[in-house]
Amino acid sequence: MASVPERDEFTGTETTGHEWDGIKELNTPLPRWWLWTFYACCIWAVGYWIAMPAWPLISDFTGGVLGYSSRALVAERIAEARAGQRQYLDRIDAASTAEIAADAELLGFAMAGGRSAFAVNCSQCHGQGAAGFVGYPNLNDDDWIWGGDLEAIEATIAYGIRSGHDEARENEMAAYLRDELLEAEDVAAVTDYVLSLSGAGGEAASIARGAEVFAENCAACHQEGGVGSSDLGAPDLADKIWLYGGDRETVHASIANGRGGVMPNWDARLDSATIKQLAIYVHSLGGGE
Ligand code: HEC
Ligand code: HEC
To answer: Is 198 near ligand 2, meaning CB less than 6 Å away?
Structure first.
C-alpha cells in the first residue's frame, strides 16, 4: 500500500482509506471558524477557572481571583432589602395601628408584611385563606369572639387566648354535664334552646325549659338571647356561625364538656412591628367591626 494519501477525484479532499462497496470516506477538515471558536473557548475556560470559583477541593474550592461569591451577593441584597424595610418598620414601630391604617404608604407595607407573616405563623391553625377549621375561628367573617377592631385584634394576637400569658384573654366555660353542674335533662333542654336561637325547630316545652336554664346559667356570658359578648369572649350563639359546630350533637358536647380553645401569645415570638402588621392584615380580612 502506498503511504501517499489518496485524493478524491471530485472534491479534491483526502480520503481516510476506508471504503465500502466502492464508497470512500472523505477526511473533510473542520471549518476554520469552528476551530478558532474551539480554541477561544479553551482559552476562555482557563481564564474562567482562574478568575471565578471553579474547582472542588477536598473541603473547599478554588475561589478565583475576582473573589465572586453568589452567597455573599445574596447576603448583600438581603441586607439592602432589610435596610430599605427598616425605615418603614421603624415608622410602624412608632405608630399605633390606627395611625398605620390612616397612612396609605404604611398601610400598603403593613398589608404585605402581615400577609407573609400570616402565611408563616398563623395559617397552620387558621388556614391559608384564614377561613379557619373546627375550633379555629374563621378570620374572614365579621363575627369576632374577642372583638374585631384594630386594638382588640392586636391584643388577641400579642397576648393570645388562654395562653398562660398574664394579659391573655381568659374566660373558661364550665363542663356543665361532666362536672355535674346541670342535670342531663337540663343540658338537653338548653341544647334545644341554643339551637332554636338560630332557627332550628324543636319541642316547645324543652325549649321553654332550656330558656330558663340559659337565663340562669349561661346569659351571664352569652347574654340574653345568646348574642354573645366580645368583652367576655363568649361567642354569639344566635348567628349560625359556629366555632365548634352547630349540629345537635356538637352543641350538646360544647355544653356538656366545655371547650377552652387555646391561641398562643405571639409577643414572645414576634416583634411588635410584625404583630401590628398582622393586626392590620387580619382586620382587613374580616372587614373589621
Ligand atoms: C396553635 C393554633 C393557632 C395559631 C398558630 C394561631 N391561632 Fe389564632 N386562634 C386559635 C384559636 C384556637 C382561637 C380561638 C380561641 C377561642 O376559643 O376563643 C384563635 C383566635 C384568634 C383570633 C380571635 C378571633 C376572634 O373571633 O376574636 C385572632 C384575631 C387570631 N386568632 C389571630 C391569629 C394570628 C394573627 C395568628 C398568627 C400570628 C394566629 N392567630 C395563630 C389558634 C391559633
Ligand atoms: C363563663 C362564661 C360562660 C358561661 C357561663 C357559658 N359559656 Fe358557653 N362559651 C363561653 C366561651 C368563652 C366559649 C368559647 C369556648 C372556646 O373557644 O373554647 C363558649 C362556647 C360555647 C358554645 C360553642 C359555640 C360555638 O360556636 O361552637 C356553646 C354551644 C355554648 N358556649 C353554650 C353555652 C351554654 C348553653 C351555657 C350555659 C349552660 C354556656 N355556654 C355558659 C363562655 C361561657
So the answer is: no
